């Protein structure tokens, strides 16, 4: 929440000022009008990363359905947009032809769309409308692989991701080298430098960490926490999380027949089973002493991977005695639950903030690409909005609180996280009161919190980062009091 002029109001006004400034420039005004329309559209979240980082699998895991990839789309360089729709439908957009409806079907590995006849590089976008609850609030974008960066640290794919998406789930297998350089390219603008509030870095395919040992996911989470403490990484994202998209997706779509087959495999004594779990070839051999057909075992490998089969049989053997229990534990262990929570807290709950950020970036790009009389003043207005945008400060504080870097004790950190919207952005969630609390109750809770945190913000014995963090909390409390004074809840 912004004290004074609301962030969305300030950005809306800035867009109209830019439209007036460029009223004689059809290209610029067309771009700015698209940004105005975009403010009302669902949040755009891109799944990006290098080759074989697991982008499509992660997108499926977040959706809870197997619809990606569109066969051949990644190789064509096209962006595939997944939007909510009443019926499955796909449309192709090219650089040289009108939009064309595509034949659509479901294949064993994802969406099957007829791309025959399209030349390499001609297809720009594929928009897939798919009926699912997961797409009611967001549009997910499956992007081509980021294959490398030039000497300036840029790549065309990442440039477009940062331009077209409001938020990015960036997948990396090791989080080093060119992966980070691709993200750094987005920090050249004033908007990019203000706060990296729209990127979550995911250490993906973590089931392969440490040679696929059963503790691979735990090891990957430890590596992710260590990486999040790296100043170079925290300058590029709000959080780092480890997640196996394959295991998480398996948990979300696991069927009763899948569970039954895994339960039969788990009945084989551990010593007798382990040699067959050393490789995929061994697992599908007829010598495995279990009444599960080789084709069924091959399907389990496709669904879970060899690591996932090891993990699932261990979980069944140690107490997950139903499909529901096993699914929940696979999702938890995979890191998908944590990733979905982060996406919800940092992206979905902050939709208006991220939409405003995208609009600011678009205005800044127009002003810099086509300077004219008065563009300098509007660039100053962009920077002024960024400097005064408390919403961005809240997101950075949330990330610091999750990492524990500020040094607040556990109770203070929980309170600060709640007050800046980490448990939800509504007044009742921020203040930790019942949903139907009276305005008087909300006012008392906000006033008391403001007083407590102002004392911390002014305490000379606290370290500077703690005092600055407390100042952000104070401003959040002031915003809540202002909202209540205006008759809000």
TrEMBL record:
Coiled-coil features, chain-numbered ranges: none
Pfam assignment, any one: Dynamin_N
Chain ranges of the Dynamin N-terminal domain: 45-173
InterPro entries tied to this protein: Dynamin_N, P-loop_NTPase, TRAFAC_Dynamin-like_GTPase
Entries under SUPFAM superfamilies matching the protein: P-loop containing nucleoside triphosphate hydrolases
PANTHER family found in the cross-reference section: SARCALUMENIN, TRANSMEMBRANE GTPASE FZO
Name of the protein in question: Dynamin N-terminal domain-containing protein
Protein's organism: Micromonospora deserti
Taxonomic path: Bacteria, Bacillati, Actinomycetota, Actinomycetes, Micromonosporales
